[in-house]
Amino acid sequence: MRHWLSLLIALAASPDAGCTQPAAPAAGITPIPLPSVPVVTLEGTPTDLPAMVHGRVAVVSFWATWCDVCVGEIDALARLQAQAGARSDAVVIGVAVGEPRETVAAFARKRELRYAQVIDEDFRLADALGQERVPTTLVVDRAGRIVFRGGALDPAGLAAFRTALGTPP
Amino acid sequence: MRLPVTWPVAGALVVALFGPRSTARADDAKAALTSAHDVEILGRHDDGLRIESVMTRITSFDQYGHGYQSQAGPAFGPGSERTTILEPQVQVVASQGPRLTHVLTVPIDVITAASPDAIDNGPTSVDVVSSASRHNVAGTIDWSATYRADPASYVSMSSGLHLEEPFRSWHGGLGGSYALAGGDTVVAGSVLEVFDWFDRFDITGHRHGRTERSSTTASVGVTQIVTPTTVVGANYGLTVQRGELGNTWNSVPLTAFDATTGLYRGPEILPGERVRHALVLRASQFLPWNGALRFYYRFYADDWGLIAHSIEGQLMQRLSPSVYVGALYRYHTQNGVDFFTTLAGPTLPLRTADSDLARLESHTIGGRIVVDLPMSTQVRVLHFEVGYERYFRSNELSMNIVTCATGYRF
Amino acid sequence: MTARGIAIALAAAALSACATVPQNRRAHFADPMMGLGDEPLDAARRQKLYDTREGAAGGDGTTAGGGCGCQ
Lengths: 169, 410, 71
Prior knowledge:
Distance between the termini of chain B: 8 Å
Number of strands of chain C: 0
CATH architecture of the largest domain in chain B: Beta Barrel
Strand order of the largest sheet of chain B: 1-3-4-5-6-7-8-9-10-13-14-15-16-17-18-19
Oligomer: heterotrimer
Radius of gyration of chain C: 17 Å
Largest sheet of chain B: 16 strands, antiparallel, barrel
Largest interface: B-C, 108 and 56 residues
CATH topology of the largest domain in chain B: Porin
Strand content of chain B: over 45%
Shape of chain B: elongated
Helix content of chain C: 25-40%
C-alpha cells in the first residue's frame, strides 16, 4: 500500500534494470573481429559464432530466459529472422548466457523460437566481448567484424543492420 | 503480448514462400528487409494504459487476548481484545508507455471490535463502531505513479484515502531512487505525510466533536547487490507525529473512583507529539540447493521511551520451476513506553494501559506455499499462494492468520 | 558491531559505486524468493499487523503510525 519506496528500489534494482541502456551509435565503435569462443547449439553440438555467421551479415542477440526485456523482444527478432531468412546473406542468432543448455532448450521449445540459438553457459563468449548486460544486440558485417553494439533491439540496431547489408562484399 | 503482422510484411513473406522461383523473389526479399519500417519489426509503440498485473489477497485475523485498555471485562481489567478481521486486498499494476508505472491498491478491513462495543452500555451511550452490525468496515484506496526519468533514475508520487466509520485519513508522498554501479547499488528516499481526522469519543461512548493528528515520515534506503547470490539493504525512517495520538476511547484502570465517568477507569492520556526512529536491515541469500534465506532486523526507538528489536528469518525452498514453499519465524521484543500502567493514580499527567505499548515479546511462526504457473495465453503467469501464521504475545494476545492470494501477470 | 555501525558500513560499501556483479549474472535475483521484501500485498498486511499490535513501526519506507483507526 505505502511500500512504494520498496517498489522504487525494486524497479531500479531489478535484474532488468540495466536492460534499457541507450544503444551505442553505429558510427561510434571500432569494428573488431568476432571472437572464436566455443559455444554449443541447443542440441549440444559444439560450434562458435564465426562458424554460425559464416560470411553473412548477422544480428546477434545476447539474452537470458530470466530477463523479461529479452523475452519481450523475441517476437521482434523472429520477425527480423523471417525477413532475413529469405535471403542468403543475413541471419539472426540468439546467444543465451549463463544458463544450462537444458533450460534454454526447454524454453526454446515452449516459445517455438524461430531463429538460431547457441548457449554460452559459462559467459566465456560474453566476457570475451566485454558484454555484461542482457539484452545486448550486436551487428556483424560480412567480414565477421562487430560494427554495432547496443542494448535491446531498437531502430539504431536495425539501421546498423541495414547499413551492413548495403555494404558490398 | 503478440503484435499484429502488418500486410506489407505478410505480403513479403507470401512472395518469399510462394512466388515464382526467380531472382525476382530474392530481390523482393532484399527489398523487404532493407526497406521494412522499424515498426514492422519492433512493433508499434503503445503509450496507452496497459495492465501488467492484478493481484488479489484475502487474509483473516482471528485474535484472542486481553488488555487493560479494554472495558470488556472486569472493572480493573484486563478486558477482552477478542476480534476478527477479514482483509480483502487488490492491487493493479499498469504501465503507461515505457516510462510510467501506476500502482493502485485497495485493502478493505472488516473488523469486529469487542472493546468499543462494550461502551454501548446504556441508552445515552453510543456504540462507537456500528450500531447495526457491531462490525467496522474500513477501506483504503492508494495510488502511486512512478516515472523512469532515465535507466538509473525513478521518481514517484503517491496519494490515498482511508475511510472508516469514525475515521478519515489522507496520505501523500514523494520519492525517488537512483541506481549506481550498473544497478548494483540503489539509493532511495521518500517523504510521506499522513493526516487523520476522526471522531472524539470518551470512554463512556459519548461523542465530543472531532480531533486530528498528522504523521510526517522521511525515509532513506540503500540496496546493494554484493555477490551473484546475495543482496542486502538498509533503510532508516524518521516519523514525527503530532495531535491526538490515541483513539480517544482507550481507558486506564484507576486507583480511585472517577465521578465524571462513573467508573474506576479514566481516559488514556498521551503526549501530543511522538518522534520515532526506525532502522531496518535486510539480506537475501540464494542457497545452492535452490532455496533462499531472507533476513530482517529492525531497531526502533521513540521519545515515549519505547525501544524495540524485531528479527525475522524466512527460509524458502523451490520445489519446481513453478512452486516454492516457505517458513518464517519472527521475534519481537520491546520495553514498553515510560508511562504504561495497569493501574494509575488519578492525577498522573500521562498514562496508558494499551497492551500494544507495554513491555512484551512476540513470536510469529508461519508457512506458505506459492505457485507461479506460466501460461501460454494472454495471461503470462498465474500466481496462487496460501499461508498460515500464528502470532502470540507474552501479554495475553494471540492470533491465527490465514492468507490466500491469486494473481495474474499479463 | 552495533546496528549503526553496520548501517554505516553498508552505506560506505554502496557508495563506493563499484559494480561487483555484472547485470547478466543477476539471474538469481529474478526469482521471487530472492526479493528483499514480501509480495507487496503480503508485506502491507503483515506491516499493518505488527504496527497495530506492537509499539514499533516504520523504517521500511512506510509511515510509523497514523492512517487508520487501528491504533
